[in-house]
Amino acid sequence: HVVEPGFPAALADTSFTQHFFTLWTVTRARAIVACGHLLGRPLVEDEVEGVNWGMAELARSSSASDLGAALDAVAAYRRAVLGWWADGYDLLLTPTLAAPPLEIGALDAPDEPMLSIIGASEWAAFTPQFNTTGQPAISLPLHWSAEGLPIGVQLVAAYGREDLLIRVAAQLEAAQPWAQRRPPT
The pTM is what? Predict the structure, then answer.
């Protein structure tokens, strides 16, 4: 393998976050409405996780024009990111997380549920882009912290190239097995 520095320039687009967040809040609102339809009645706040309810509330402040602008911007972003692979790159290597794994519940803020999403977006800064582009990605525990926690790296392949992603992941696992490793309890 040849490894060289580089990444899709579109990943540096700071406007992506706001457009992604607009789509995310609207999909949360739609999911809550859809669940209500399945039940035959609207859901109420205490039936929905606080962060999802908060996101749905934020969606109510978005207009149809806001949603249309977000859809257009994310479609352009998707094309710009995918173009990097068309330039001859096979895989992108990133951290999985911006910091070592946190304890379960570390980001919970029951009185301010939206604070947990802000913390999560800073901590999980390397994955939403590829949720948006639809590209296959995999996180591999290739390093372990001094506390015994897995530190993941993310590999991202071109759209439809799961075969390459799985082959390289298998090579990495063979070189540095992790199946028997377990974080401390």
Answer: 0.82
